[in-house]
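Allow me, if you will, to draw on your knowledge of protein folds for a short while. I am sending you one protein, given as its amino acid sequence and as whole-number tokens for its backbone shapes. Kindly check, if you would, that the fold set down in the tokens agrees with what the sequence suggests. The record follows directly beneath this note:
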Amino acid sequence: MTGRQAAHSIIVALGVLAASVGLAHAASLSVVVDLSDQEMTVREQSRIVHIWSVSTARGGYRTPVGTYHPTRLESMWYSTIYDNAPMPHSIFFHRGYAIHGTTEVGNLGQPASHGCVRLHPDNARVLFNLVLEHGRTATQIVIQH
């Protein structure tokens, strides 16, 4: 078993344990971004439904750490700061920071952004639809080291 597989097994076990003792998050949709692993784990209730590679802030930039709820959803947004760069399926969670699709899929799994959390466009669409389904207040976004 690789280190990544072991970590995923531990995450699943902790989710089952939390649910069994009544400690599951009030949020019905949980999105956890691990900056160290450049990975996103998506849970519905306490069940892991997706694990995806992401790109977060590269050197000189930062992705804000903390716990958030989506503040705004835009099916298509263009960056007002970075040359109108396309940001499909944007889920804004803190000021101008968002989770969104990227055309730079070759960079997924490593830091590459100005601070946003980038996903494969197909995964961004899936996540966007999950947030729409569950609602902003029932969705929790956790960015951690």
In short: The mean pLDDT is 88.
